[in-house]
């Protein structure tokens, strides 16, 4: 990139690229990337189900509980050492970690959608806040951003694999000072996917739904097959899998083939994802904000 960080202050962590605003020419073909929940003249609703990778919490929590249970039943209590006692005390932390992992999977609502209300010029975000303490209440709230003061940024994290995410940053009016940020999309190996998602939102808010390519809303049910192949959708034998394979680019094919040796882990992870989504609550919007985020302002009497 030509610069080390974006224009906004404070900068988003792992910043990669600022996105265009207003009527700037689109850089990519607009697409909701399969996250479209609803679209009409008043509002656009996008899913964020795929932002949180579910299944890992339950799988990791079960493993941690297994380690704890193994430590509770040594071969012989009479041969316990100081080290054994210390490990047993430390295992309490393992239990707390296990509960946190499981709760992260099943307590966060199955989706935390974002509504772009074109009629009001507002963005309504269903946000759920998780806490490090698994024993306290994890609240949810509805955040409201002004479209005119919202900027988009793409982040890039490089580890064993490169992942891109799309963030919306709400600034003080007329400034580049960030008040709040939320993640709109993520877990993508291709930054173009994040650009396409932002272009979809931007074109909708600036020009309306008539200027967007037609896309089918995502299925909102919890499907066993879809969950099982979630981490390896190119192996899905259904029509959805065939459509996924047709959409895949070269980079996605290479990354998918590299994951093949991990199928023994990714398929059980998909099973845990199914269980997590089954147990997770559905998002419940407050009635007043639900109506406000869906509708247009009423004319003054």
UniProtKB/TrEMBL annotation:
Domain of life according to the entry: Bacteria
Domain DUF6708: 95-297
UniProt-listed Pfam families: DUF6708
Keywords of the record: Membrane, Transmembrane, Transmembrane helix
Transmembrane stretches, start-end: 51-73, 85-108, 253-276
Keyword Transmembrane assigned: yes
Matching InterPro entries: DUF6708 (IPR046554)
Record's protein name: DUF6708 domain-containing protein
């Amino acid at each position: 990139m030509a610069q080390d960080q974006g224009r906004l202050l404070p900068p988003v962590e792992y910043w990669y690229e600022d996105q265009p605003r207003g009527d700037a020419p689109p850089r990519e073909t607009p697409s909701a990337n399969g996250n479209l929940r609803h679209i009409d003249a008043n509002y656009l609703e996008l899913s964020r189900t795929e932002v949180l990778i579910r299944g890992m919490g339950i799988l990791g929590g079960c493993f941690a509980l297994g380690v704890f249970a193994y430590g509770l039943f040594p071969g012989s209590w009479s041969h316990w050492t100081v080290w054994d006692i210390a490990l047993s005390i430390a295992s309490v932390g393992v239990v707390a970690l296990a509960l946190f992992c499981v709760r992260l999977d099943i307590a966060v609502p199955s989706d935390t959608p974002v509504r772009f209300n074109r009629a009001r010029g507002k963005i309504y975000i269903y946000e759920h806040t998780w806490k490090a303490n698994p024993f306290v209440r994890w609240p949810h709230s509805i955040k409201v951003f002004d479209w005119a003061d919202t900027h988009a940024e793409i982040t890039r994290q490089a580890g064993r694999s490169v992942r891109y995410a799309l963030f919306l940053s709400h600034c003080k009016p007329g400034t580049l000072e960030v008040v709040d940020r939320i993640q709109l999309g993520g877990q993508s190996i291709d930054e173009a996917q994040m650009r396409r998602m932002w272009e979809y939102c931007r074109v909708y808010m600036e020009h309306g739904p008539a200027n967007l390519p037609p896309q089918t809303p995502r299925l909102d049910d919890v499907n066993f097959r879809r969950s099982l192949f979630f981490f390896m959708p190119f192996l899905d034998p259904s029509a959805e899998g065939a459509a996924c394979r047709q959409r895949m680019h070269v980079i996605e094919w290479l990354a998918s083939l590299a994951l093949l040796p991990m199928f023994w882990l990714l398929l059980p992870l998909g099973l845990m994802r199914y269980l997590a989504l089954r147990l997770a609550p559905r998002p419940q919007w407050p009635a007043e904000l639900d109506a406000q985020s869906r509708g247009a302002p009423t004319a003054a009497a």
